[in-house]
C-alpha cells in the first residue's frame, strides 16, 4: 500500500482518527512483515519506530519522489535497521535508473544536512536484488545466486563502452549500467 505519501493523506487521517496513517494501521493491526509500504515520505520518527519494531517493509521508489520534488532519508532508514527494498512505482522505470536515483536522492539529503552515511554502491545493488527479495518475503526463492533459488539473471556485457574500462565493477554497474547493457536475460534458469 502507498503509505504516508501525501500531506493530504496525513491531514485526512489525522482529522478522522487523531493519529498518523502509520499509527492508524498499527492500531488496526495491519503493520507487520506482510505489509509492503510504498514511499513513507511523511513518516515521523515515531512512525519509523513502529515500522522497524513491527518488521514492516518499505518500498523506496526514489524516481517518483524526486519527480514530485521530494526524497526520503534512505541512509537513515538503513542505519536504523528498517527493511527497505527499491521499487519503481510504475512499469516505465528500470531498476538501473532506480538505483542511480536512490543514490542521487541520498546525496541530496546528505548535502541538505542529513548526517546519515550515503549508501555504498554494493548496498544499492543489494537493495535492488537480495534486500528487495527479502522485502517481498521471497528471499528463499530469489534475490541472490545460490543453490535452490530461481536463476533470474540479467547478463551484462562488460564490453560496452560505457562500462569499460572500469576500476570498480560495482560502482560502474550502479552509475552506468542500463537496459542497453543487458546482453541476455535468464528467468528461472532458462534463457529468454
Structure explained in plain terms:
- With 192 residues, this protein is an alpha/beta fold.
- The protein contains nine helices and seven strands, in the order βααβαβααβαααβαββ.
- It has helices at 7-17, 21-27, 45-54, 62-67, 74-79, 95-111, 121-128, 130-135, 169-176, and strands spanning 2-3, 36-39, 57-60, 83-86, 153-156, 182-187, 190-191.
- Strand 2, helix 3 and strand 3 (57-60) form a beta-alpha-beta unit.
- It starts with a strand and ends with a strand.
- The mean pLDDT is 92.
The overall strand count is: 7
The largest sheet is: 4 strands, parallel
List SSEs in N-to-C order: EHHEHEHHEHHHEHEE
- Summed over residues and divided by their number, the pLDDT gives a mean of 92
Radius of gyration: 18 Å
* Helix-residue proportion: 40-55%
Classify the beta-strand content into a percent band: 5-15%
Secondary-structure-derived class: alpha/beta
Low-confidence stretches: none
Distance between the termini: 31 Å
Number of helices: 9
Shape: globular
Strand order of the largest sheet: 1-2-3-4
Throw out a few tags for this protein.
single chain, 192 residues, alpha/beta, four-stranded parallel β-sheet, three-stranded antiparallel β-sheet, 9 helices
Amino acid at each position: 500500500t502507498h503509505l504516508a505519501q501525501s500531506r493530504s493523506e496525513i491531514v485526512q487521517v489525522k482529522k478522522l482518527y487523531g493519529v498518523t496513517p502509520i499509527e492508524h494501521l498499527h492500531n488496526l493491526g495491519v503493520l507487520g512483515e506482510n505489509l509492503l509500504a510504498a514511499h513513507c515520505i511523511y513518516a515521523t520518527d515515531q512512525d519509523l519506530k513502529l515500522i522497524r519494531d513491527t518488521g514492516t517493509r518499505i518500498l523506496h521508489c526514489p524516481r517518483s519522489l524526486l519527480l514530485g520534488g521530494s526524497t526520503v532519508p534512505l541512509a537513515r532508514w538503513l542505519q536504523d535497521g528498517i527493511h527497505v527494498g527499491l521499487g519503481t512505482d510504475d512499469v516505465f522505470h528500470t531498476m538501473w535508473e532506480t538505483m542511480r536515483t536512490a543514490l542521487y536522492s541520498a546525496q541530496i539529503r546528505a548535502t541538505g544536512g542529513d548526517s546519515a552515511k550515503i549508501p555504498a554502491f554494493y548496498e544499492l545493488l543489494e537493495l535492488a536484488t537480495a534486500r528487495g527479495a527479502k522485502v517481498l518475503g521471497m528471499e528463499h526463492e530469489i534475490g541472490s545466486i545460490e543453490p535452490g533459488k530461481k536463476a533470474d539473471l540479467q547478463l551484462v556485457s562488460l564490453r560496452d563502452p560505457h562500462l569499460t574500462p572500469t576500476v570498480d565493477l560495482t560502482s560502474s554497474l550502479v552509475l552506468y549500467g542500463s537496459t542497453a547493457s543487458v546482453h541476455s536475460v535468464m528467468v528461472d534458469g532458462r534463457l529468454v
